[in-house]
Write a structure and sequence with these properties.
The protein has helices at about 5-20, 30-35, 40-70. With about 70 residues, it is mainly alpha-helical.
């Protein structure tokens, strides 16, 4: 599969998961974290970890492709 197809598939699958999990189910923990502003810290840390993982996989894939061509 081309890189563009993989990227589109990733975006669509992430969007469908977000829609499926977007329920109005408020528990005490998320309300507490929102009131203290800590939910944004949690989201930022999760996004940083995901971006790092995707970057790592991308660069490892490029290195493996270069080795396979040799």
């Amino acid at each position: 599969m081309t890189l563009l197809k993989k990227l589109v598939l990733l975006i669509v699958s992430m969007g469908s998961c977000t829609i499926a999990l977007a329920q109005n189910n408020n528990s005490g923990t998320d309300e507490l974290m929102r009131s203290n502003g800590k939910i944004y810290v949690v989201v930022a840390v999760c996004l940083t970890i995901l971006i790092g993982l995707f970057g790592y996989v991308f660069f490892v894939d490029r290195k493996i492709s270069k080795i396979e061509k040799k």
